[in-house]
Amino acid sequence: MNVLINADEIQRRVVQIAGEIEADGALDGFLPIAIREGALPFARDLLKALGRPEDLETVTISSYVGEREARQDPVLLGDVPPSVAGRSVLVIEDILDTGRTLTLLREELLRAGAGTITNCVLLDKRRDRISEVDAKYVGFEIEDVFVVGYGLDYENEFRDLPYIAIMD
Ligand code: IMP
Ligand code: MG
Q1: Which CATH number goes with the domain that contains 95?
Q2: Is there a contact between 42 and 150 (Cβ–Cβ < 8 Å)?
Q3: Distance, CA of 64 to CA of 70 (rounded, Å)
Q4: Does the first or last residue of the chain, that is N or C, have fewer Cβ atoms within 10 Å of its Cβ?
Q5: How far apart (Å, rounded) are the C-alpha atoms in residues 89 and 105?
């Protein structure tokens, strides 16, 4: 396992992103929503840095089963929180890859009556998107490699690593 981004670098960047969000007022009146399971460590640390640790809604979106390459279209498990109606939303996600997950969530949030939707992702894989997505806040741009740790998993393993590593 090759460490790509160590725990200190992650924590420093999270604090910087919190600073950007604060400077933009992007959380004033916004409802933060994290995508389970992968985005939870990032979302918790980010909201802690923003001084709003108690303030998190979540949705569960599953995009793949088992094999690294055996990706399916993402599916929303359950509903988006009803509290999104009439609210602006800050979506917090671990990694932007093909763009399908954030596109699906955006559609579902709009359907549920959300206002402005702003995306915040820890990692952005530089690759051709299947679905064009705009992430206003990006922690790190990375190459098109499969990574684990800090919430990201391979077959439900490695989520608890405090750093991000490339799987070989
Ligand atoms: P997208 O829908 O292709 O943009 O993919 C986003 C989702 O795919 C993320 O929420 C992750 O669950 C998963 N994913 C994409 N790339 C990786 C990776 O390198 N490691 C672990 N999970 C990933
Ligand atoms: Mg995910």
Answers
A1: 3.40.50.2020
A2: yes
A3: 7
A4: C
A5: 11
Q: Give the tens place of pLDDT for each residue, 21-45.
A: 999 998 898 999 999 989 999 999 9
Range of the domain at 72: 2-166
97 is catalytic: yes
Buried b (16+ CB within 10 A) or exposed e, 28-39: eebbbbbbbbbb
Catalytic member of 28, 45, 94, 97: 97
pLDDT digits (tens, 9 = 90+) for 111-144: 999 999 999 999 999 887 888 899 999 999 999 9
User: What distance in angstroms lies between residue 162's CA and the mean position of ligand 1's atoms?
Assistant: 18
The protein residue with its alpha carbon nearest to ligand 1, atom 12, reads 38
